Amino acid sequence: MSFEIGLITFGELTADPATGRLPEPRQHLRSLVELARVADQGGLDVLGVGEHHRSDFVATAPPMVLAAMAEHTSRLRLTSAVTVLGSEDPVRVWEQFATLDLLSGGRAEIIAGRGSYTESFPLFGYDLADYAELFREKLDLLLRIRETNPLSWSGGRFRAPLQEADIAPRSLQDELPIWVGVGGTPASAAQTGARGLPMMLGVLLGTVDGHAGITELYRRAAEQAGHDPATLRVGVGVQGYVGSTSQEARRTMYPYFTAGFRDNNHKRGQGFVLTPEKFDAFTGPQGALVVGSAQEVIDKVAAYHEAYGISRLLLHIGFGGMPQGQLLASVERLATEVAPVLRRELTVPATTYPGTTGGHGTTVTPGSSAEPINN
């Protein structure tokens, strides 16, 4: 299979830093569907919708948003990014995504994660003290549901046993892909590797290779558990923007990204202020953010591929309420100027979807260096 490139959206509702106006929720949801349509028509591979349970996010029910997207797309794979599994019922998660798989013609996926946004736990009656154990138990059950029907299951702390339960519908795909989203916690990476599941690594700030130890730990744990590390897929989700030029990309992204970073952060405004100087560092050649001209973005994705052996990159474009026109312009550049080069140049071992890959190496030639933001 070729290298996959796609998008992530959280559906955040952020006041425009220029006008102070908040998006209207109904219109914002329609904008997300339009985003999927443009990504599909441009030939991107994947689109993920994040789950958040606060009034500053409109995508509290990703399966419903993804189902609407399915009706306006034909090839785009549709995934959660992430499903906060610890506060969900795995039976219901399966029912929703298997239904999405049928509606979309076999294009559904799940990225299950613990979630850095934790509002859903008290909202649905769970104790945050059980955060890690909830995820482990519910992931075990979700994987069993995928494997067996009818299902008998017992031994969990957080739900009643199942006895010959008929869990329907079944997915159209023989094996609906279930990835695990990891935010940089070593234990999470090791547990994911031991299960032999594909890993989606979430990167916010820092450097391109800042999580190299995490992927090494993931593959080492997989090997120790009897899985072939070369067959395990790793992806990265990261913030970015593809501009017409380096300067335009940085000028466009900076005010919206910093607004989102301040207003929609999982700690709601806490943390350091992202100054232009810090933004420059994070968008430079070694910085984690994937921002710049098409060539700069190609170079940065190639650097991630070299550092982690990834076969998929999901770019979160437009965080912080970027206007739809600028967002879609960036998506079109990603689809037409960036994705074809990455698919041609990045080495990904051949496999049948949703099989696993993990190849390293690239033949992409580095391009121009990043220019600083000009406020």
Description of the molecule:
This protein has helices at residues 25-42, 62-70, 90-104, 120-123, 131-147, 186-195, 212-224, 246-263, 276-283, 294-308, 324-345, and strands at 4-9, 46-49, 77-80, 83-84, 108-113, 151-153, 162-165, 178-182, 199-203, 234-242, 290-292, 312-317. With 375 residues, it is of the alpha/beta class. It has an 8-stranded parallel β-barrel with strand order 1-2-3-5-8-9-10-12, surrounded by 8 helices. A two-stranded antiparallel ribbon has the order 6-7. Helix 7 links the parallel strand 9 and strand 10 (234-242). Helix 6 packs parallel to helix 7. It is globular, with a radius of gyration of 20 Å. Residues 351-375 have low confidence and may be disordered.
Fold blueprint:
Layout: E1 4-9, H1 25-42, E2 46-49, H2 62-70, E3 77-80, E4 83-84, H3 90-104, E5 108-113, H4 120-123, H5 131-147, E6 151-153, E7 162-165, E8 178-182, H6 186-195, E9 199-203, H7 212-224, E10 234-242, H8 246-263, H9 276-283, E11 290-292, H10 294-308, E12 312-317, H11 324-345
